Amino acid sequence: MPVLGTGFFFGYSISPQTLTARSFAQARQNTQVAIPQSFIQELLSRVDVVDIVGRYVQLKKGGANFMGLCPFHGEKSPSFTVSPSKQFFHCFGCGKNGNAIGFLMEHAGMGFVEAVQDLANQVGLQVPQDDISPAERERQAQQKQKQATLTDVLEKAGDSYRKQLKTAQHAIDYLKKRGVSGEVCKRFGLGYAPAGWHGLASVFPEYDNPQLEESGLVIVSEEDKRRYDRFRDRLMFPIRNVKGECIGFGGRVFGDEKPKYLNSPETPVFHKGRELYGLFEARQALRDMGYALVTEGYMDVVALAQLGFANAVATLGTACTPDHVQKLFRFTEAVVFSFDGDGAGRRAARKALDAALPLATDTRSIKFLFLPAEHDPDSFIREFGSEAFARYVGDATPLSRFLIEAASDGCDLGQTEGRAHMASNARPLWSLLPDGVLKRQLLSEIAALAQLDSRDLSEIWAKEAARTAPARPRTAATPAHDAPPLGEQPPAWDAPPAWEHGGSWSDMGGLSAPAPDYPPSGYSQGGFSNHSAPQGAGQNAYGQSSGWRGNRQQGFGRDKKPWGRNKGSEWNPPPLGPRVTPGTRTDQAARLLMAHMEFMEELTHEDFDALTHSTEAHGALFRWLEAQFTESGPRSWAVLREQLKGLPQQPLAEKLMNSVHAQPEGELDELRVELRGVLNRILIEHIKQQITQTIQSMSTDPSATQRLRDLYARQQTLDQQMRNLPSSS
Ligand SMILES: [Zn+2]
Fold first, then answer.
1. Mean pLDDT, range 666-686, rounded to an integer
2. Strand locations in 134-245, DSSP E?
3. CATH number, domain at 212?
4. What CATH number is given to the structural domain containing 370?
5. Burial degree of 593 (CB within 10 A; 0-12, 13-18, 19+)
6. Distance, CA 329 to ligand 1 centroid (Å)?
7. What is the pLDDT of residues 331-372, one digit of tens each?
8. Ligand 1 centre and the CA of 104: distance in Å?
């Protein structure tokens, strides 16, 4: 005590969150479980959002609602309300809102399934799981029980380590030397594992209990089966999951012995590739400071917290994984990876780049910080001060620049070969990015660096992607659960958008077209009043277009002779030489429909929805065409043209039908195939946009997971159909 100040070790207690969290059932985080929508509704009707939020936020009754200080943004007077009648929370300060499930995901950092399970446990409901055998359920229950027991064991060991620290003078001296205060020490629950082989025997009288081995605290010798403590004479850092439960330890030596850090092994509760040290402790700071600083060691995290950067976390002696990055993005939209300036640091940064690329959406910020070779964050701040460090962080290398640096590594950009090599290095990195503005801009940048037209580069890469893509099975129906694992896979956009079928750079929707009006996500938009009935998962995001006649047959292929004959029909790719913009796919669809209005019959709800979402002008034209068609059936272009006179739709219609691409000519069957192809590409593009949007809403919108699954499944079906269309093989 004397060295670290009064009150250092006294009154140490676990935070209220921790205590509550400890009664939670363990998450089965990466399990894919289809939870029926009816169950979600029932669950939400049984829990009270006021209780759930009240566990984390102090609430006071104010009128019909409860008020409190918003846990999502820093504030002094309450603008955070919880409505018992609507079962929603809403912050008038930062706009965060949602139901009980959303709150647990957002605030406690749980995944959707985890949050549902948590709530279900509280009200004694069993989460129904399709296709799960009683034996499997039993196994899962046992697993859950085991995990709860293991965290109890680890917690008990942690308590003991903390007590031991009080009397371990050399450990206290070390902390003092590193400038770690009692307060910070307490916040991170630091402890001391005494020297000696059986220190834990005094904590656990049954030293041969297999749980000690399973939790990684005790090692059993292979030779003589003797048992001994894993951590001896080390400074102990308890590793907590996002709920605050102790799931493992990191132990640091005091001198130069090796290994400097020793970690708990992988156990049923501890997975290095998924957990981040300090995340639980950093949660509030992540919101206050607006970004996460990812460092390389436990001591960095503690030292940074001491120096005013409580938003630091660390990987656990492993390379950064996409799971890590995704976990961080549940708490913040900006991540800065910090590395030592040496070769090992660069290599670690490359791995972090790979992990971060699939999650680098346009709304997120990812940066890379390289410290001067002789510094770690701690020493940097001690030498130059916190403000200098904050500036240094602000100037960190953005992901886009680091990607280009990484691709150019070892390439002489002054030489043609070097530029070609750079482009070839860049492709696999670039293709990991989710579709969006960043991705498209990067393509131009890489092309400029390679001294190519971005269209040429795009073509080359598209061919390359087609050549190297794994062959996909040509089976018919693909069940929905074959969709890519959520969160691990970005929307598939491995190749640049297809040029060869009448596309132009500006017609890809993302850059030039106004943002489509996405279907309401159920939680994230609007105020309280719109949400009296919580919506949930299970709604297809497509097929929601209202005002469309309900009796139209879904899907295609209803025609007598759908795509059967392939009489040499061709796509007539626009010539690549003279760069005349052939208009967008939507333009082409409009031309076909105006020239052959009977094709309106071919449109499904989904087609119509996608078409009307392209641009306002196109939307108005398609709606008008549909109305005409419904009223009086198909007419020729000459008649349509007369009827359009003076209408707002006229200029676009005239422009399309009088352009150099003129009116589509060819046999009806061929044109029908062409229309289907164009429509499918529009649909795929539309779905991709929705996928991007849905992934972004995943942290706040519990229904997003299911919607994403539906979207992936639909995309897969459409891709399949594209491959089976006669002329696109
Ligand atoms: Zn707020």
1. 84
2. 191-193, 218-220, 227-229, 234-240
3. 3.90.980.10
4. 3.40.1360.10
5. buried
6. 18
7. 888 999 998 877 888 889 999 999 999 889 888 899 999 988
8. 15
